[in-house]
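Private note to self, pasted from the team thread so I don't lose it. Backbone tokens:
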């Protein structure tokens, strides 16, 4: 065998050894990186309030994907086959069971072990309104699952939202225990900010001329209960529903009795019903944002900014001093 022929097997052996080392190094790196090889947890959030929590708590350790895009009404969300398939690749899913039926079904089929269901992280309640002396439930129960008549809008109450945040922290920590300290730090900071927001609402709404406000969408039951207010929704679960004659008559009576000044509508739905009713009742209109999504029409860039805008709108409508 000549010198050249002896070198070829040696080169092949060296390359093979180098390949094994490289493969071993890549395998170790992939294992260390976790999901996606980026070193970050892959988190899928059902809609904006869940996305906000995941980002605030996860910080730089998470890569968050939202199923509900800005400007889309989350109650009506339908998932594409690609979104449903991608859901199964998430390390953590953060959602609110009972709000989006399509998401509930997809989560059930995904096989993902680490999930945070906001509906199970705080106590859900029923919220209703009075029509002709009879109680009518206006809480949303879109999927028919979970508690019958339960209102899912817990994120609009800063205290309940803080409870959900702690549950999201637990889910992220279970999926990535090596960064538990960072998740806990971020959670503590977020809960502190939510406590501060709760105090702003408490102080800002303490002295007021009226307790009652009218909305197109029955989304503010928890917020109203927290601060001693009364929400009167025009159409219940549907923000664009046309009110019945009986409902209009009831709203006329209560608006006069309780010194109501404003009919509130939201950014993700038509304001036509609110404007028509306000014209009939000689009231003004304004935005009270249920924070189901952030768009360029939102009065604020994030949860806290929009909530403070909501507080100002309520103070004006209720005659706060």
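Design output:
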């Amino acid at each position: 065998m000549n010198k050249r022929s002896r070198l070829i097997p040696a080169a092949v052996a060296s390359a093979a050894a180098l390949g094994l080392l490289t493969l071993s190094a890549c395998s170790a790196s992939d294992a260390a990186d976790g999901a996606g090889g980026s070193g970050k947890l892959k988190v899928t959030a059902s809609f904006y309030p869940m996305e906000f929590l995941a980002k605030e708590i996860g910080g730089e350790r998470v890569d968050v994907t939202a199923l509900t895009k800005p400007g889309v009404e989350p109650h009506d969300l339908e998932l594409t086959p690609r979104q449903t398939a991608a859901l199964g690749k998430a390390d953590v899913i953060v959602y609110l069971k009972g709000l989006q039926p399509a998401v509930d079904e997809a989560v059930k089929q995904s096989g993902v072990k680490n999930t945070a269901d906001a509906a199970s992280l705080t106590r859900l309640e029923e919220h209703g309104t009075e029509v002709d002396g009879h109680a009518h439930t206006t809480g949303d129960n879109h999927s028919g699952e979970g508690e019958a008549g339960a209102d899912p809008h817990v994120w609009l109450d800063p205290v309940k939202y803080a409870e959900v945040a702690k549950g999201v922290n637990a889910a992220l920590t279970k999926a990535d225990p090596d960064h538990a300290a960072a998740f806990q730090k971020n959670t503590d900071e977020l809960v502190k900010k939510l406590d501060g927001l709760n105090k702003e609402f408490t102080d800002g709404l303490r002295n007021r001329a009226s307790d009652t406000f009218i909305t197109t969408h029955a989304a503010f039951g928890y917020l109203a209960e927290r601060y001693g207010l009364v929400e009167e929704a025009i159409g219940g679960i549907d923000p664009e529903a046309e009110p019945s004659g009986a409902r209009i008559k009831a709203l006329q009576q209560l608006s006069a009795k309780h010194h109501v000044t404003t009919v509130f509508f939201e950014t993700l739905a038509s304001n036509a019903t609110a404007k028509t009713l306000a014209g009939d009742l000689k009231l003004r209109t304004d935005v009270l944002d249920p924070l189901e999504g952030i768009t360029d029409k939102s009065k604020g860039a994030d949860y806290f900014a929009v909530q403070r805008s909501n507080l100002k709108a309520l103070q004006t409508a209720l005659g706060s001093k």
